[in-house]
Amino acid sequence: MFDALIDQFWSLTFSGIALGFIYVLIAMGYTMVYGVLRMINFANSEIFMVGAFATVMVSKYVFKLSNDAIPPSSFKLFFVILCCLLASMLASALLAFLVELVAYRHLRNRTTNRIAPLISAIGIGIVISEIVRILTGARTQFSPNIVPKKTLATFQGAEIRLDNTLTIVAGLILFIVLDRFIKYSRLGKGIRAVSMDEDSAKLMGVNLNRVISLTFIIGGLMTGAAGFFYVNVYENVKFNMGFSLGLAAFTAAVIGGIGNIRGAFFGGISLGLVEIYASAVIGTQWKPVTVFIILILILLFKPNGIFGEAIQRTRV
Amino acid sequence: MINLRDKGAEFWERSNRPVRVLTVFAIMAVVAALPYAGNTFLQTPVAAFDAVLVYPMGMFILMALGLNVVVGKSGMLDLGYVAFFAVGAYTMAILGTRTGLNTWEIMPIGIAAAMFAGVLLAIPTLRLRGDYLAIVTLGFGEIVRVSALNTEAIGGALGIAGVPFPPGLGFEYQLLDQKYFYWTILVMILLVIWVIRRLTVRRPGRAWESIRQDEDAAELMGVSTYKYKIWAFVFGAAIGGGAGVFYASRSMVIAPDNFTLNTSILILACVVFGGMGNIWGVIVGATILGYLPDRFRFLSDARLLLFGLVLVVFMNLRPEGILPRKKREKAIVKKGSGASL
C-alpha cells in the first residue's frame, strides 16, 4: 500500500509542493477577501477559472502556440510566459473587481444579513461559468505546451521539471511581494486596518469602498497567476474546473487560519503535499474525502486554524 | 417595494375564524387541483407538468422547509444539506431493492439514518460558528457523495436502479400520471408545516430564535444552546432524509450525481430567496426556483445563466427575500402606538 509512496517519495514531494503553490495563490483570493469583509468569496473559483482560460486564449490565439509548432526560443519563451501570466492576472483582477461591484458593494451597505451576499456571489459564479461554457463548449479544452516539461536535474531519482520549478519560484516571489506589500505599503496598511476594525478605519480616513475594491483586485491578481501556473502544469481547462480547486484552496486557507496570508501559505503547501501523498497511498478517487477529513480534524482541535486568530465567533 | 408579508399578516389578523378557514380551504383546493392545470400556460415544455410538481417543486419545498429550521430559524449556515437527502435516498434504494420492505416501512428507517448522520456531524462541528460551520458542512456533503461514488457495493457511479414505487393505498402510483405522488408529497409538506409551527411557538422554537439573535446572550439566559442547536440540525436532517426516501422511491434510480453541492446551494437559495425564517416565504421561494428552470427549458443553453442572474439581481433588490421574517421590533412599535391611541 505504501510502496508507491516510498518509491516515488521525492518526485511526489516535488509535485506536491508545486500543487501547493497553486493552492496558496488561489487561497490568497479567499483569505484577503475574508480578512476584510468576513465573507467567503464564493465566486473566487470562477475567477481562477477565467484566469486559466486567459492563458490558454493568449497562448493559442496571440502567440499561435501549438504542440506541433516549433517551440519558441528562450528569449521569446520568456516573453510568452510573461504575457500569458499578465493576461491571466489582469483578466482575473478585472473580474474580481466586477464581482465586488455587482455582488457585494450594494448589499454590503444595505443589509446585515450575511447570507444574502453569499447567495449573490454564488449567483455571479454561476453566471460566469455559464458564460464560459456557452462560449467555449462543455468539454475539456487542451492547452498548448507553454513551458517545456524539460528535466532540469534529478534528485534521489526524482526529476525536477522546469514547469514545476517555475511554479514554485514564481509562486514564492509573488507571495513574498504580497506579504511585504500588505505589511509596508500604504494600501496594505489600509487593508489591515479595515480587517481589524471597519468603523475605526473609516474614522481614521480610510476610504472603505476603495480598500475593499483593491483587496478584491489583489486577490484576483494572485488567483489569476494560479490559473496560469495550473495551465502550465496540467495543460487543460474546463468551464467547471474552478469548483474542486477552489474548494481545496479554501480548505487550505481555513487550515492556516482564514484571514491570515502566512497561514494560507502554510495551509496551501501542506494541503498540496498531503493530497499528493494520499493519492499515492489510497488512490486519487478518495482525494476530496481525505482533504475534508483533515479539515474537520484540524477544526476540531484547532478551531481557528493553525495560525488563525479568534475569528470563529463571527456569526452568520 | 410593497411588503407582501405584512399585507398577508394584516389580512389574516383582520379576518374572523370562518374567513380564515375558508381562505385555507380555498388555497388548499387550488393547490390540490394543480396537477389538472397541465394544459394551461403553466405547462412545462419538456417534462410533464405533474412530474415537475413532484420534483423539483414539491421536493424543494420539503427540503427548503427542513433547511429553514437550521439556517433561517437557528442561524447556522449549512452548505451540505444534500447529505441527509442522499442518506435517506440511499437507505430507500438499498433496503427497497434488497429486502422486502416497502417505502412506508423504510421511511422511518431512512429518517432515523438521516438523523443519525445529523448527530454524527453535529456533535463535533456545532461548536464551530459561522463560516467555519458552513465549510465543514459543505465538506460533509462532499464526503457522503464521494463515498457513495467510490463504494462499489452501493453501485458506485452508476448508482442503484430498480427502486420500487411505494405500494398504493387504495390507488396505484404510476409513472406517467404522477398526481398521486404529488398529493402524497403535499400531505408530507402539510405535516412538516404543522410540526414546525408547533415547535416554533414552543420552547425549542424560542430557543432557536434566541440562538439566532445572540448566542452568547441565550447561553447566559440559561438556554442550552448546544443541545438546541443539535436538535435543530437533527430535525432538519430528518426532513431531508424523509424527502430522500420519497425521492428515491419515485425516481426508481438514484446515482451520486443527484446529490452534488449544487443541490445544497439550490435549496439554500430557495430559503434565502423566499425569505429566511418565514415558512411561507420559503415555500414561495422553493416554488419559484423549482418551477422556473423547467418552465424556461426552451432557453436550454442560457437557462442556468438566467438562474444565476435572477439570484444576483434579486438578492440586490430584496436581500431579505420575497416574504421576509416577522420583525419583532415592528410588532412592538405597533402595540405601543396602539396603546397611545
**What is the spatial order of strands in the main beta sheet of chain A?**
1-4
Rg of chain A (CA only): 19 Å
Helix/strand class of chain B: mainly alpha
Distance between the termini of chain A: 43 Å
| Assembly state | heterodimer
Q: Name the CATH class of chain A.
A: Mainly Alpha
Number of helices of chain A: 12
Helical element count of chain B? 14
Number of domains of chain A: 1
Fraction of residues in helix of chain A: over 70%
Gyration radius of chain B, in Å: 20 Å
Secondary structure: helix percent of chain B: over 70%
Structural class of chain A: mainly alpha
Low-confidence stretches of chain B: 329-341
Question: Largest inter-chain interface?
Answer: A-B, 50 and 47 residues
What's the shape of chain B?
globular
Break the fold down into its secondary structure elements and pairings.
The complex is a heterodimer of chains A (about 325) and B (about 350).
Chain A: H1 3-7, H2 9-37, H3 44-62, H4 74-110, H5 115-136, E1 141-142, E2 151-155, E3 158-161, H6 162-184, H7 186-196, H8 198-203, H9 208-234, E4 236-237, H10 242-256, H11 261-282, H12 287-301
Antiparallel strand pairs in A: 1-4, 2-3
Helix pairs in contact in A: 2-6, 2-9, 2-10, 2-11, 3-4, 3-5, 3-9, 3-10, 4-5, 4-9, 6-7, 6-9, 7-9, 10-11, 10-12
Chain B: H1 4-14, H2 17-32, H3 49-73, H4 82-98, H5 103-125, H6 130-150, H7 179-201, H8 203-213, H9 215-220, H10 225-251, H11 261-274, H12 279-295, H13 303-317, H14 328-340
Helix pairs in contact in B: 3-7, 3-10, 3-11, 3-12, 4-5, 4-6, 4-10, 5-10, 7-8, 8-10, 11-12
Structure description:
The complex is a heterodimer of chains A (about 325) and B (about 350). Chain A is mainly α. Chain A has a single domain, classed as ABC transporter involved in vitamin B12 uptake, BtuC (Orthogonal Bundle), CATH 1.10.3470. Chain A contains twelve helices and four strands. A two-stranded antiparallel sheet of chain A has the order 1-4. In chain A, strands 2-3 form a two-stranded antiparallel ribbon. Chain A is globular and about 60 Å long. In chain A, about 50% of the residues are buried. Chain B is mainly alpha-helical. Chain B has a domain of about 210 residues. Helix content of chain B is about 70%, strand content about 0%. Chain B has 14 helices and no strands. In chain B, α3 packs antiparallel against α12, α4 packs parallel to α6 and α4 crosses α10. Chain B starts with a helix and ends with a helix. The chains are: A mainly alpha (about 325), B mainly alpha (about 350). Chains A and B meet through α4, α5, α10 and α12 of A and α6, α11 and α13 of B.
